[in-house]
Amino acid sequence: MNNLLKPNQATPVCDTDKMELVSKGSLSKFDMNEILNCMHCGFCLPACPTYRQMGMEFASPRGRIALMKGVAKEELAVDAEFEHHMNLCLGCRACETACPAGVPYGSLVETAREMVEDQKRDSAKPSVMKTVVFDKLFKNPQRFKQLGTALWAAQSVGLQTLADKTGLIKVLPRPMAEMQKAVDKIASPIARKKREPVMKSGQANALKIGFFSGCIMDVMFFETNQATASLLQKAGCDVLFVQEQVCCGALHAHAGEKDGAIELAKRNIEAFEQAEVDFIVNNAGGCGSALKEYHHWFHDQPEWQQRAMNFVAKMRDANELLAELPPLTFSKRIEAKVTYQDSCHLAHGQGVRNQPRQLIQRIPGVEYIEMNDADSCCGSAGIYNITNYEMSMDILDDKMKQVEQTKAHYIVTTNPGCLLQMKNGIIRAGLQGKMEAMHVMDLLARAL
Amino acid sequence: MITQELKDQLVSIVGTRFYLDSNNERYAYSYDATPLYQSMPDAVIVPGTTEEVAQILKLANEYRIPIIPRGSGTNLAGGTVPVEGGIVLHLSRFNQIYEIDRENFTATLGPGVVTSELHQAVEAQGLFYPPDPGSMHISTMGGNMAQCAGGMRGLKYGVTKDYIMGLEYVLPSGEILRCGGKNVKDVAGYDMTRLMVGSEGTLGIITEMTVKLLPLPETKRTLIAYYSNLLDAARTVEKTITSKIIPATMEFMDQATMRVVDDFVKLGLPLEMKSMLLIEQDGTEQEVDRDIEQIAEIARAQGAKIVEVAQTPQEGERLMVARRSALAALSRLRPTTILEDATVPRSKLAEIVEEIERIADKYQLQMCTFGHAGDGNLHPTCMTDERDTEEIKRVEQAFEEIFLAAIRMGGTITGEHGVGMAKMDYLGLKVGEAGLDLMKRLKAAFDPNGIMNPGKMFANSDRRRVVVKQ
């Protein structure tokens, strides 16, 4: 309270003496220039899904940046309340598209969360969930494969049906219970073992693609990865599954676990350097956005920054590359109405909007219908639908009203989180049997 | 200060969910879109009904707690900064359009309705609400009303005050009053509606409003003209109007603004040009085609180097987006962007733009000028850094000179943003000492205890005031 600017201080002009021309850095990790670039015009307000739900300033990007400024000026503490407001943000970055001043909101909110985590590390233990998920699971690709096998086994013996029937599902935390209903049957260990490490196009001078398969993506949506690789192969590329790759680190960075994120980034940079590829390609908007921002993670390590820049220069989303390559020849028709839900990190993070729409419309028979607010977040947002379940479902239910209006047979998206959320949305809206959620690569592969 | 006892009473009116007073919550309501102004409220209350507003005001009046009404907080005059603490009354829950009356051409709505949402709702029925402030996708109708927002269509259609027909409002005493209504003609007593519009929350709280609608124009077309100097652009504006053509919009941008906007919206503007005019006409197809052709001729005759007519409505819309983004796009240049709205009679357009350039040069400041050329309402915008106190001082001096120049040319200190805190030292320049005194007495009649948005509109008496000699 002492540090808060008080009313009646005869300071209608805010106290500038606390803000130095160069940010201090010791107490606050924020770049003051970037915070001041926000002129609080409010253009971001209508673009923000949480502001649209709540109508409160502190649930908006402008409000969150103001709170960060408060922390930077030492007028607010990095406390539980600040953490709550920073974590209510989906990180969808729709505000960056709306912001005329070019404020890098995504990196500001990551810094804010990093400060929250730093503070917690100093004062107490980090949450068990975070330790298990971020340290044990994501940093270890072998564990992911084990998890995949366990999931497959559970699905195979009908545990899912059993859980549904016995009411076991009621014992699970609600977000988990609801989400697991939406999960497709995952690939068997045998099917996964059959993957060939290199898929040759058979063409001379073929582009050499290093495929970034992702961790969640490769377990939950193994077939989508295979489909993507086939499409690239068909388009004349040699596709290489780089074995030494690990998780991209996006979820770590979003959650303020910057050290963990950097460690993963280094391993990926090394792995793809050794593979000597022309392009690095992935099909998950969220991961792609992080992979394309690796160079921002190494400001204080020039050598790594250069290596990161080389990595980033090769990085492409599968939609981006396929739209540039000679058009695929499709042998099948898909007579269906198709609509597209942007992945926030593909649209707002990477600026890839037209390419997936173009690719969908090239499929013979497809009637493409553009959805209202297609580039507004579905509420999935990484692990947001577990950490902020209620808000996530409110946003999803609003999104499904727009989806329903399109009367589409397929709702297509480009990111595993969005795909799961859409599958869940179809169940919540009672649209099973009428509509199917699908990754754009799977839809394209179906028409090959 | 809000005591625990008072807090309990306020919570019992709105419920805990809508009474907010944690540090972060209060901090998020300590500013609006105006640079440099920030101050903490004691609480933020989000009432849901007129009755709740009345009860809150009555209590605040009894305990002498300032009340600051607020919509989306996009105003540019510091009008919603709680400079003396107190309660920010956030009216976002009054966001319903109650009625669109197709016989009387009116809409009745809550003050929390977002301006562009009203546009969409009435346009779906072939009707038209013309005021279109730059922040229309964010700002609320209550905020537009309180500040008497303008916009790009001011020249032909007027501003917010020309469209507010009736109000429901609450006085600090807790009385709920109504004024005006759906009657086109209504001279029963003083025009309280006009008084409330633009009163910046200093008199009472608006809880419902009835606005006038027009038939939606059939079509519109956009024309762009580029000039190698300022004077030719200004002369085009003058000549168009003296030819008895009133375009819906005549927007001006100088070279510096064009550069920044182009960088943001990527329109491929000819950046070697010194200024540009963006002209839009609406009406029937025939009228629009005839007017646009004639304006194109006038522009060429006045020395426009390039004249382009947007071929599709989408193309026109995209150019308008460019102009709408001007203010915020300018903020890319430097950390702090201060925008003013000095206004002059149309005939003085070139003169004031040149004067602004001279003043910017004198104080060695980076200024861009854009704005509503058709109504003489310009936005000289200064790119600076709030941490550089020495430069901020020069900015203040420069703007003071600009205000004085505007007044000298028969203009005003603010065309559409309002006085708020940003211009309260200069209000006397425009209305005179006796005018100020009468305004203060009017306020006292509404708000004898001075709880309604205190510290706005009128400078504290001991502050220096500029006296202009005509």
TrEMBL record, chain B:
Residues 37-216 form the FAD-binding PCMH-type domain. The keyword Mitochondrion does not apply. InterPro entries: FAD-bd_oxidored_4_C, FAD-bd_PCMH, FAD-bd_PCMH-like_sf, FAD-bd_PCMH_sub2, FAD-linked_Oxase-like_C, FAD-linked_OxidoTrans_Type4, Oxid_FAD_bind_N, Vanillyl_alc_oxidase_C-sub2. Its cofactor is FAD. Transmembrane segments: none annotated. Pfam families: FAD-oxidase_C, FAD_binding_4. GO terms for molecular function: FAD binding; oxidoreductase activity. SUPFAM superfamilies: FAD-binding/transporter-associated domain-like, FAD-linked oxidases, C-terminal domain. Keywords: FAD, Flavoprotein, Oxidoreductase. Belongs to the FAD-binding oxidoreductase/transferase type 4 family. This is Glycolate oxidase subunit GlcD. It comes from Ammoniphilus oxalaticus.
